[in-house]
Structures are given as C-alpha cells and as structure tokens.
Design goal:
444 residues; mainly alpha; Growth Hormone, Chain: A; globular
C-alpha cells in the first residue's frame, strides 16, 4: 500500500453542493427513522393487542417491547456488513441499499396478518421484519453521517454532520404524527386497518429518499482512499486493532443519549397513558412537538461543539441528563398534561440534543478514513443496543417491579449518564496521542 501515496485533499465543496449533500442526507435519514420509529410507536400502543392478545396487559407490553429490542440486536450486524462495503466500495451505494431494505420491511409490516388470523406465525413474521429494519438502520447511520462530515470543511464538521442526526427526531415527528392522526379513528377501525396506513405510506417516502440519494457524489475522504488504493481489506478487523480504546469508548458514549431518547420517545407513551392517565393522542402530540423542536436544537448544539469542542458540549448534556432523572418523575407524578409536556420537551428537546448533536463529528474524528464507516457504525450500533435497544423493556420492568412507582428508574438513568461522561472524557482523535499528549476528539 505504501507505493500509492495519498494525494492532496480536494477542494472543499461549494455552498450549493454542500446544501445538496446535507438535504439528501437529512431527507433520507428522516425517512429511514420514520420507518424505524413507526415500530416503536406501534409497539407501545398497538402490537400487544394485535400480536400478543393472550397475554396480560403488562406481559403483552413487555412482549411488544421485546420485539422492538430485536431490531437493535440486528443493528450491529448491519453496521458490520454495510460498514465493510462502505469502507471498500463507498458510502453512497450503501445508503441506497439500506433505504431499500428498510422500506420493504416497513411496507410488509403494514400488510402482516395478526395473531387472530394466523396465530403464532404473526408475531414470528413481525420479529423477522423488525430484524430487517434493524439490519438496514444499522448500516444507514454510518453512511449518512460520513456523507456530510467527509464533505464538510473541518471547522464546521459538527454542524454539517449533525443534520443526519436531526433526521432521527424528524422521523419521530412523522411517525408519531401519522399515528396520532389515525389513532383519532374509533378504536375498532384503528385496530382493524388504521394502524397499517402509516407503514404502507413508507413506500412513497422511500421513493423520495432514493431520488435524492442517487444524485449524491462520493465523499472526498473516501475518494482519496480509493484513488490511492488504500482501502482496508478487512476494515472492521483493522478498526479494532488500530483503534481498540476508541471502539470501546464509543459504546459507552452512546449509553446516555440512547437511553434519554427511548425513555422519552417510546417508553413515555406507555407511562403517560397507563400511569399518568394522559390520553394516548395527547401523549403522541407532546412527543411529536418535542421532537420537532429537537430537529432545530441538534444542529444548534453541534455548531456550538465546533466552537467549544465536542467533549464540553457532549459531557454537559450527559450531566444534565443525570440531574434530570428524579425531577422528571417528581414533576409529572400528578398527571398534569402541562407538567408532562414541559418535562418531556426539556428532556427530549434541550438535554438530548446536547449529546446527540456533536456525536456524528465526534465519532468521525475518532477513526481514520479507511476504516471510519466500520468503526463508527460498530461503536454507534453496539452502543445503541446497550443504551437504547432494551431501554423500553428495562424501564417497563423496573416500573412493574416497583409496583407501578417510577423510583427504580432514575438510578438507571444516572448510571448511564456517568458511563457516557467517562467515555467522552477519555475519547481521543484518530492519530492523537501517538506523539505527545492525547488530544480530546474535536477539542483541538
């Protein structure tokens, strides 16, 4: 590989081309997460009744959340497979494939017969489709954030890299909005066919996403690697050997932001309706509004990380999440819709984006370009399993174990916050520390 030196970096893209990259990454990611979050919303509100009808209410909810977690189990595999080919073939082609796989799986969920029709085959097929969703989104994230980060000027990597991150809450807005609209139907109609429509609408959104993604060019960073014939033969192996500490720290960095998000985007729907007496439609609207605010807050915090450093902003968000743990349940305990809305917006729109906004650029800076897709995807997806995949299940179990009282949940939140603070503090930029003192990722 040494006989093919890397050539000088290509010029930065123009403002118009950068806007095209950002728009395509944001739109495509929003569609992917719309598909993924539809399942979470349905798991909280519908699937226990339609696919696990012979269970008690609690057991049915736990079973539905267990199938939700199955998607997270497939995400690391998707990150490994798509990361491998993304580091060898390119970022763009993987983004097209992941969008197609996600769209097909989501559309088929909308067509699935329920337990009343085909018995145990119904939840089995549901889990299979969820695994396909997880596989697709596992490869999506790395390609989407690298498409923007690797196109952007180094001084603005946080801001531009955050737009695919904003696609996640935008997808949640679309998913919860779609469910809120159809949940207004009479219960009989909603359970018979209304819940299916948001899944079937995925076909239209995927067509839009493919149109914008097919127009993108490959990233300059990967183009350099390709031109110099420096592609890693086994990117994941090289990533683990070359960046072992940062891979492990990436897992920990994801703990608090993922738990924060799935606490307030998925679990809170069940908690609000079952424990606080808040109507289902009202809870959905609150989550949708909080997510809409976060779409703007994420790039705001990411731009701040370009000025103050990833570490300072990220750790500030993790500390705030730990401090938020007890107040959230204390303030909402009375069942006031206003209190519930205020605390959900605080947690999802103000605290979570302080961590999630800088995350894309932080992870990109922790790994070298030739293995970046594989390494960043592995760190993010395993971290997602640990921090978010089982979160609704664990949170529901803790609530049930305490007799419906939430006081077992805050220590879990505080523990995740501490893990994230430590992981981000010790993360270093790729190449930093080989000579002289280590440099915190994104700080220098």
């Amino acid at each position: 590989m040494g006989e093919h030196p890397v050539k000088s970096a290509p010029p930065s893209p123009s403002s118009s081309s950068m806007r095209q990259v950002v728009a395509a990454s944001f739109i495509g990611t929003a569609i992917e997460w719309y598909d993924f979050f539809l399942y979470g919303t349905a798991a909280a509100l519908v699937f226990s009744k339609l696919f696990f009808p012979n269970f008690s209410e609690l057991a049915g909810t736990l079973a539905a959340f267990a199938t939700f977690a199955a998607g997270f189990l497939a995400r690391p595999l998707g990150g490994i497979v798509f990361g491998h080919f993304g580091d060898r073939i390119g970022r763009k082609s993987m983004l097209v494939v992941t969008l197609l796989v996600m769209g097909v799986a989501t559309f088929l969920i909308g067509l699935l017969p329920t337990y009343a029709t085909i018995g145990v085959a119904a939840p089995t097929l549901l889990v299979l489709m969820r695994l396909l969703q997880g596989f697709a989104v596992g490869g999506e994230w790395g390609g989407a954030v690298l498409m923007t980060v690797e196109h952007s000027p180094k001084a603005r990597r946080g801001f531009y890299g955050s737009w695919p991150q904003s696609g996640a809450p935008c997808g949640l807005v679309l998913a919860t909005g779609a469910f809120a609209a159809f949940s207004a139907l009479p219960d009989e109609q909603f359970l018979a066919w209304g819940w299916r429509v948001p899944f079937l609408l995925s076909a239209v959104l995927v067509a839009v996403g493919l149109f914008v993604r097919l127009r993108l060019l490959e990233t300059p960073d990967f183009a350099q690697v390709k031109e110099a014939r420096e592609e890693a033969r086994l990117p994941l192996v090289e990533a683990i050997k070359g960046h072992p500490k940062n891979v492990l720290l990436a897992f920990g960095a994801c703990m608090a932001p993922f738990l924060n998000f799935y606490l307030l985007a998925v679990f809170v729907l069940t908690y609000a309706t079952s424990n606080l007496g808040i109507e289902e439609g009202t809870a959905l609207v609150v989550v949708a509004v909080a997510s809409a605010i976060e779409v703007v807050a994420i790039p705001g915090y990411a731009a701040l990380s370009d000025r103050l450093g990833r570490r300072a902003v990220f750790i500030g968000g993790a500390v705030a999440f730990g401090l938020f743990a007890y107040p959230f349940f204390l303030v909402t305990a009375g069942g006031s819709v206003a209190a519930f809305a205020a605390m959900t917006i605080l947690g999802l729109s103000i605290i979570h984006p302080a961590m999630y906004g800088p995350l894309a650029a932080l992870f990109a800076e922790m790994f070298s370009a030739r293995v970046r897709y594989s390494a960043a995807s592995l760190g993010y997806q395993i971290g997602g399993v640990l921090g978010g995949g089982f979160a609704p299940f664990i949170l529901t179990s803790l609530l049930a174990a305490a007799g419906g009282k939430p006081w077992a949940i805050p220590p879990y939140m505080i523990g995740a916050a501490l893990v994230t603070v430590a992981a981000v503090y010790f993360a270093t930029e790729a190449g930093a520390g080989r000579r002289g003192a280590p440099e915190a990722a994104g700080v220098g």
